[in-house]
User: Fold this.
Amino acid sequence: MKPIALAAAVCLAASAATASAQALKPEKEIQLRQSAYALMGYNFANLGAMAQDKKPYNKEEAARSADFVAMLADVPKGFFGPGTEHGRDTKAKPEIWEKRSDFDAKMDKMVQETKKLPPAARTDLAALKKAVGDAGAACKACHDDYRAK
Amino acid sequence: MPRIAVWDAPTRLFHWALAVLVVFSFVTGKIGGGWMAWHVKSGYAILSLLAFRLAWGIVGSETARFSHFLSGPRTAVAYVRALAARRLPTVVGHNPLGGWMVALMIALLLLQAGTGLFADDDIATQGPLAAKVSEAWVGRATAIHKWNEWAIVAAVTLHVSAIAFYHLALRKDLIGPMVHGRMESDAAAPRAAPVVLAAVLFAIACGAVYWLVAVYPRAP
Assistant:
């Protein structure tokens, strides 16, 4: 290993250690995932309104909302740590921690589908409708099983 | 035995259109995603049908009227006793139990379509009136919309089971008359209201629902 690569690896390891050392309070974790969902929801609803012909399709606006959703989709999965089952009126069901691998798979599917939103939003309304439908179904898969009514 | 017309065409059309749309709504709601736009439209159609049926239950044909088929509990108990004794009383129209089933079904579906107007799935679909009320009410409406779904599934199951029971245990066909409208009976034919009245009422119902879901929400 070259010295520079070694130095970079050490730096990376150190920063990773710092990040995990900054243990968040469960309450803070819940707040962060809820905030991400709230902003995702706001932007995805905007795309949904265009996809359902409730407002005219506007490429720039759609692209902006799609970018937000795709970026924010990566956030919540990091904030379902231990001790975050209760608090801040969370609608997260205990089943998340009981069937974690299934929950994670559904979360990954949602992340994957939302990545298709930005290119679709920049293509045309038909492409957006398809991508919003697929991403919406991926959201729903988790809501049905892991989100309290 | 002579055949008499028991169900008028508007009531039969209403029934089968409702059956198809309820199944369609259930399935599209379960699939979600791009089908939610159709789920919403199906709900509007159901609401229009229900509004028509309420009016038809007041001014429609004799067997379609609420006053004709809604009876007290004593009548219902007497009817159940007769069934238990395997004596099938001849009824032209809804029997005392079936009548209450109609009322229950209409009430549950009205609740479902009504709460759907205010519901928000927190994904991409919002009822047309959700923006008009507080988030607390949107939450309540959404929760009722989700739980009542299973009440409807239970009511439909009961309804279909009852028809199967009449068919198999009592050898009484209830599906045929709801398709072609006629039954064999010595009784006098019930009075039928003009079909054109039904058409006018349905048009008014559709117009009212259109105003509610498309015109009123855009008003400031």
Q: What stands out?
A: Chain A has one domain: 25-146. The radius of gyration of chain A is 18 Å. Residues 10-21 of chain A have pLDDT under 50 and may be disordered.
